[in-house]
Amino acid sequence: MAAADDLAFDPWDPTFVSDPYPAYAELRERGRVTYYEPTDQWLVPRHADVSALLRDRRLGRTYQHRFTHEDFGRTAPPPEHEPFHTLNDHGMLDLEPPDHTRIRRLVSKAFTPRTVEQLKPYVSQLAAELVDGLVAKGGGDLLTDVAEPLPVAVIAEMLGIPESDRAPLRPWSADICGMYELSPSEDTAAKAVRASDEFSSYLRELIAARRKNPGDDLISGMIAAHDEDDDRLTEQELISTAVLLLNAGHEATVNSTVNGWWALFRNPEQLAALRADHSLIPTAVEELMRYDTPLQLFERWVLDEIEIDGTTIPRGAEIAMLFGSANHDPAVFTDPERLDITRADNPHISFSAGIHYCIGAPLARIELAASMGALLEKAPTLRLAAEPERKPNFVIRGLEGLNVEVG
Question: Is residue 122 one of the residues assigned to a domain?
Answer without folding.
Answer: yes
